[in-house]
Amino acid sequence: FEVALANGEKISSAGHCKGVCMTMQGVPLKIDIYLLPLEGIDAILGVQWLSTLGPILWDFSKLQTLFNIDSKEVVLQGLKIPASKLVDEVQFSNELKKEKKVILLQINALTLTTQSSNLVSNDYHGAINKDLGYLLPCYADFFKEPQGLPPQKIHDHQIPLKDGSQPISVRPYCYPHYQKTEIDKMVVDLLKSGVIRPS
């Protein structure tokens, strides 16, 4: 069967596994599982399984689900995302020794303060390397926000198209649901800068 995703795409199930025994937060479960080509998710507790539980109490402020299995009360706790923090190399190494799973996100922001508002001024202050402060104004054009497509070059590469050919119809790539917001933001930024256009 087909499943419609939040982005409108439909994906097909590759199979059906009956009576799969699994443990979720220490709770033993036996459920039927449909295989779907999703990324970033281990399992989705679908309506077929939820409908077998009877009354369910949801508490979204605590990210909890409460229900009964075999007359026993069960509480599933949702993951609480920890606040982002800036760590140095030593802290990072210590965290890595505690647990071998990490997500590394590095964001660098350079704040330049100049005597004048002119970007080509050589007088940089603040926490920035002197050599870098000298090079940045020399190559200021490279750091400007792009507007539109790249300029014409001596040789522009192109893809030769056959006369009368139609666009190739391919399914869009699947992407994890948690990346949707960031992808939408990137598309909006690219549209504003003129690098892409609606098609």
UniProtKB/TrEMBL annotation:
Domain of life (superkingdom): Eukaryota
Q: Name one Pfam family in it.
A: RVP_2
Q: Which residues cross the membrane?
A: none
Q: By what name is this protein known?
A: RVP_2 domain-containing protein
Question: Signal peptide span per the entry?
Answer: none
Native organism = Cephalotus follicularis
